[in-house]
Specification:
The complex is a heterodimer of chains A (290) and B (299).
Chain A (H helix, E strand, L loop, with lengths): L15 H12 L3 H18 L2 H6 L10 H30 L3 H8 L1 H34 L8 H29 L2 H25 L8 H5 L5 H18 L3 H9 L7 H25 L4
Chain B lengths: L8 E10 L2 E11 L3 E6 L6 H8 L7 E6 L10 H4 E4 L11 H12 L3 H10 L15 H13 L5 E5 L7 H16 L3 E6 L2 H4 L5 E6 L2 E7 H6 L3 E5 L2 H10 L5 E3 L4 E4 L3 H11 L3 E6 L4 H8 L5
Parallel strand pairs in B: 3-7, 3-8, 5-6, 6-7
Antiparallel strand pairs in B: 1-2, 1-4, 8-9, 10-12, 10-13, 11-12
Helix pairs in contact in B: 3-4, 4-5, 9-10
Classes of the chains: A mainly alpha (290), B alpha/beta (299).
């Protein structure tokens, strides 16, 4: 008899069957591809026109080859928002449609949270891959392939994009499990990512230019979750574009001060995700399902 | 501690408070295998809260609810031990019945054959590939039952399963539950209407305002039924009965008495006491009346 076969202590890790169950649930409703449509549309349009990035560095004509990884990074950043929304939707759908009792009865709460997170991370990775494939195609067509960016850089950007989207999907599941109300959680997520975090960053950085606030406060802006994801994505393309001025390009793109290196930013996002999961685990475990 | 495989449910000193509302207090009872246990009580008496506490969906404020000797959350393969049909249990409206069962079945650890089996068992085979959003209340109840049966569990817990079922559906469900219990398994089925469970119930747990007011066989409840008497001098008859140890006497309107005793004893006592009887009716066997009396409803 293995440990998981015995009673006494609730299991934590999901069984393969539970993972399959959650995958079937995601695939049997249309929210995952309904959210994939805008992801695809954004990937195409951002990379065809070079997006904001092309305009921002319009002066650096010689570095045209660097624009594709950058616009790709930007579209991956947008994809991560949809990945997060998807995570929120799959977690809150259980409560909205009152399926959560049945789900908890056969799966157990913590294993269900982890299984949902794993499947949502997979969906997030699919969004990133979709963005990468369509973005590269559109980018090569639209930005011109005069000077191809190095395959290594592109692969690295796509790999980081997959990680960022997967992490945001899990954060979405954690948020949805904590908040439960579908409309509330989706709106809350979007308001935070698109508005609140930008305002927070502005406030954190506001005092530094004239030296009223210490630089350490401004640097906190790099440790907010959406900013951290952006830094991770923009770090490499910015170095390609601006060389040693890379970090300041990242600063202006992500709206942060004194960004850590890309891998550090990815680690920051990972910590946020782990913290979100832990909170969702505790809140979800204590909730009465009536 | 491992589940003991007994199919027994044991609730001990269970209490649950939602804010200011004390839904259940000091509730204790045991549900044995091989019988249909009816869980009766008026709406709002705490039935659903109790069932959900047994299933680990509601955290008790105090007390315990054990399934086969362990809390539900500690069952290693809960879907194989307990099947539950709960009120307000949903299916994603866009998912077909088959997909819903496949998704649950994957977590329980059963395959597509079992899904087809339970669909046939509850009579949903023809509707299997339609989205559940278009199902009637009765079809949803059948789907919920099919879901509960997936893991071929030893224990069935059903919360108001008759809701939305047509008379044929209810008759079918009764037969099904009776057969289930006769096969040596456990059935705990709640209802606010005794008539709905009718003759299939072997044991009763009656709940009122969050506490247990009766538990035991249905015979025990029938045995407490009353004799109604209309007589010339109710007070004298009551005294005479009290002298013979019959103390459960209700004084009803127009001088009638409801007496918890055998009709022969009441008649003999009245004769000995010299009280003329104008009418004597036995209410023996009327579970509904007793249920209403126990739960404070007007008889």
């Amino acid at each position: 008899m293995t440990v998981s076969e015995r009673g006494g202590r609730p299991a934590v890790l999901p069984t393969p069957g539970l993972l399959r169950s959650e995958a079937l649930k995601t695939l049997s409703v249309r929210s995952w591809w309904a959210l994939a449509l805008p992801v695809a549309a954004l990937a195409l349009s951002v990379n065809v026109f070079g997006g904001l990035f092309g305009a921002a560095v319009g002066g650096l004509r010689d570095e045209a080859a660097g624009i594709l990884p950058a616009s790709l990074a930007y579209s991956l950043s947008l994809a991560s928002v949809f990945a997060a929304v998807h995570g929120v939707v799959v977690a809150t759908a259980e409560f909205r449609h009152r399926t959560v009792s049945g789900t908890y009865l056969v799966g157990g709460r913590v294993p269900v949270l982890l299984a949902k997170s794993a499947v949502a991370a997979g969906t997030g990775a699919v969004y990133a891959l979709l963005t990468a494939v369509l973005g590269l195609l559109a980018g090569l067509l639209g930005q011109g392939a005069a000077r191809l960016p190095s395959v290594g850089v592109l692969l690295a950007v796509v790999g980081i994009g997959i990680a960022v989207c997967a992490l945001w999907s899990v954060l979405g599941v954690a948020l949805g499990t904590t908040v439960v109300n579908q409309a509330g959680a989706v709106v809350g997520l979007l308001v935070y990512v698109l508005l609140l975090e930008n305002l927070l960053s502005l406030v954190l950085r506001s005092g530094t230019e004239d030296g009223r606030a210490p630089a350490a406060v401004a640097r906190l802006s790099s440790f907010l979750p959406a900013n951290a994801g952006d830094i991770a994505l923009f770090d490499l393309p910015a170095r390609q574009l601006g060389g040693r001025f890379g970090p300041s390009i990242v600063e202006s793109l992500a709206g942060v001060a004194g960004p850590p290196p890309g891998w550090g930013a990815l680690l920051v996002l990972l910590v946020w995700t782990a913290a979100g999961l832990a909170l969702a685990g505790v809140v979800g475990e204590r909730r009465d399902i009536t | 501690m491992d589940p003991d495989g007994s199919g027994r449910i044991r609730v001990e000193g269970l209490a649950k408070r939602f804010g200011a509302v004390e839904a259940v207090r000091g509730l204790s009872f045991t549900v044995e295998p091989g019988a249909v246990t009816g869980f009766l009580g008026p709406n709002g008496s705490g039935k659903t809260t109790t069932l959900r506490a047994i299933l680990g969906l509601v955290r008790p404020t105090s007390g315990t609810a054990l399934v086969e000797g362990v809390p539900y959350a500690a069952l290693p393969r809960p879907g194989r031990v307990v099947g539950a049909v709960l009120e307000a249990q949903g299916v994603h409206p866009a998912r077909t019945a088959r997909r819903h069962l496949q998704a649950t079945g994957a977590a329980v650890g059963v395959g597509d054959e079992r899904v087809a089996e339970v669909l046939g068992l509850v009579g949903l085979a023809d509707a299997a590939d339609r989205p559940a959003g278009g199902f009637s209340l009765g079809m949803n109840q059948r789907l919920a039952l099919a879901t509960a049966l997936l893991g071929d569990p030893r224990i069935l817990v059903l919360d108001e399963p008759g809701n939305g079922l047509d008379p044929q559906g209810i008759a079918w469900l009764r037969e099904f539950l009776r057969g289930w219990a006769h096969a040596g398994r456990t059935v705990l089925v709640s209802s606010h209407q005794l008539a709905e469970l009718g003759q299939i119930v072997d044991r009763l747990v009656v709940l009122d305002a969050g506490t247990c007011v009766y538990q035991g066989g249905t015979d025990g409840m029938r045995g407490r039924a009353a004799v109604r008497v209309r007589c010339a001098d109710p007070a004298r008859l009551a005294r005479a009965l009290a002298a013979r140890g019959v103390l459960e006497i209700d004084h009803l309107a127009e001088g009638e008495l409801a007496i918890a005793a055998d009709a022969v004893l009441v008649g003999d006592t009245a004769l000995a006491a010299g009280v003329a009887l104008y009418g004597l009716t036995e209410e023996r066997g009327d579970l509904e009346q007793m249920f209403l009396r126990l739960t404070g409803g007007a008889a």
